[in-house]
């Protein structure tokens, strides 16, 4: 991925810290998993994976018992005849999409999602999307992106999805600066941020992705954007192509992160310091008080992150600085040094960061260190618990409202809960 | 291409993982892209295993494709061999791995390990999970037990007098529906007959155990989807006969006991006389009379679907109105079974087709998989799970076999539980306007209180809309539109009102029968009279 080279060359001093790079077995999800939350976020979109039975099985397993009604995603499973070239894959795709749209006439936005198999056989989904868009316009817009494991890890699926949307966002016409918040957030978090921005007098705030395809944000040279999530380099680059300017900020996790994030917007929009303090002070004080409850439980506890979502570095920053936890190792699937520069400045200088993974070697290090709590995926969590370690499964951090002031203590509680539980259980 | 909302089976390499994870001391090196490790959590979360599955994935990414993915595979295999020191290794590719054609089998052979390395070729774009498990088990048995085979033409030595008969239990795997407790139950049952278990495989067996398969007198095939291919081979090469009866249900268990006793040369009657199971008495007791001819739809893997149909019909007195399977390999068996109940078998792996069939048949109970729970929930029909695929709640902590006499007890409780209890059913038919126990409410013993007000509408409209199910999630809980019946006949308002007096769970069936009756008799307007004429016509 080309974002890598870009990140390294632009690295400012604080982010030139030593990072271990590992290559071996990756125990991570592929980008298709992003569909599990994106289909709920953008309510009139449908995600059609073009892939194999494995892809269908993956999303179904990841979605688990969550979905008992008909979900807004599906898989066009490629069969032998598609691979052997006996049928034209494009004709087949057209047939399936026609069938799907007839079945669900309420779909306004259809994503064709590429997978490893479709990638390897070089099925051109972007051309298919263009063709189908023309056919079903204006009722349905068809876009494509890749969620394959070859190219994306877990949350990078959201990046690929949003990046595919940016070129079709309406152009902003006004001359006044507007703020765009980028990255899926829980509805409750969005609403809190809207109130805070209102209080700061930043009136024109839009969120991306929106809650439905009819309310896409506009973008243009007057747009300043804040990343709400650390895993969006491609989306950011596409926005920059449209003239939008990224505001450098830490991510809105914890009191410090949220304050830094809001301050970046306040500075860009010329909000004066007194107003900023007046608006944020009550929430900051309240959040600090709520965090107090967890400081005793978490302070001094040793923490080990396996790579999963790219949220690891902001989380490690929050847990070490605001709850005094000790960082044994912070694994991340991919480190974008430019977007994480503000985070890296705040992270303790001696924190061991690992980019990539060789799961067996990382498990060796983890066992050796015997941390108090291990943040890892569901494939590792129960086996590590059985070895006597306390774990926090990482995926929950993507499915829970954790950003902003009023979620800071909820976020701390997610880490305290497994420790409390271990202490409570006698048998 | 095939449009898939839910899939009944995973890809074939997941079947191979079920064999490898069920076994001990066997390692699987899988050439697969980053992300395919999701399969680990099937075992660590759904089955709640306390160890990582013995699977090393190469997890190649896009940047590796320009380089030597074959070298990546070899280093993964070398590392796995050094780290895990297995007794044997299987190697293969996932769907994407097979597209890049690195030949894992050949590569692994070239590494010169001192253990058996068995290549497993799984056609990921043609076959599925159970086929993958069956093929993997068969290849393992061939490769590991094969060298101990007697020379062709030799006869099996007679068992020494006084020596207890020995059998293998074949078929249980990781992620199998109740495999853990079925093994316990059948082992106990065989013990009561004086038969020892030689090897249970794949579940719990090591490759070293597989070398001892030939020492048993016969094989017990518990799950034909996984074991019948291996058992046929063992019969051919080691002259071991294998059992054909699946001991799910009381009658089937009795037949099974007689079958194994025959193979072992022991007398089954004392054991059968002493055996106790509560299902027959529970089912005969008058409390169960209201179960008579309850209309049931059954879907699952072939083994569980066929066994369930027999129990439903002969042991619980239900009426089987639909029977089907997603196990295409066993389609013929299911067709034969369906013919016994006068229904046409539904052989499909298309979830939407199953959904349409359930909507059309209007059963009072659905016995199926996790997927049928989705369907039954949407249509407001009671449901119990009889077969994989299943989710975490069907890997219970308690003892919960499906096989043998205790299995029959478990089945009685599980299947009757979702049905409304007898007294409540009567009262609902008598008094329709109770503010609390009203039409379409969930059975009050299920505790959740009342179904959404729209539930009756959803269930009824489903008859008319087999192909166009409600759309977005939200729509499922909104009142469904009143679509005209797909017939020429029109309902008169009084008749429509009278229809509402028929108990909720049989109303859809009554509507359909009345419409059919009206069509067949050229009735244009369905009146109250037509409704009762039809009722008399279709009286059972």
UniProtKB/TrEMBL annotation, chain B:
Chain positions recorded as [4Fe-4S] cluster binding sites: 36
Domain Light-independent protochlorophyllide reductase subunit B-like C-terminal: 491-535
Binding site for substrate: 422-423
GO BP: any one term: photosynthesis, dark reaction
InterPro entries: ChlB/BchB/BchZ, LI-POR_suB-like_C, Nase/OxRdtase_comp1, P-CP_red_C, Protochl_reductB, Protochlorophyllide_Rdtase
Domain of life of the organism encoding this protein: Bacteria
EC number(s) from the headed UniProt entry: 1.3.7.7
UniProt xrefs under Gene3D superfamilies: 1.20.89.20, Nitrogenase molybdenum iron protein domain, Proto-chlorophyllide reductase 57 kD subunit B
Subunit and interaction comment: Protochlorophyllide reductase is composed of three subunits; BchL, BchN and BchB. Forms a heterotetramer of two BchB and two BchN subunits.
Function: Component of the dark-operative protochlorophyllide reductase (DPOR) that uses Mg-ATP and reduced ferredoxin to reduce ring D of protochlorophyllide (Pchlide) to form chlorophyllide a (Chlide). This reaction is light-independent. The NB-protein (BchN-BchB) is the catalytic component of the complex.
The protein, known as: Light-independent protochlorophyllide reductase subunit B
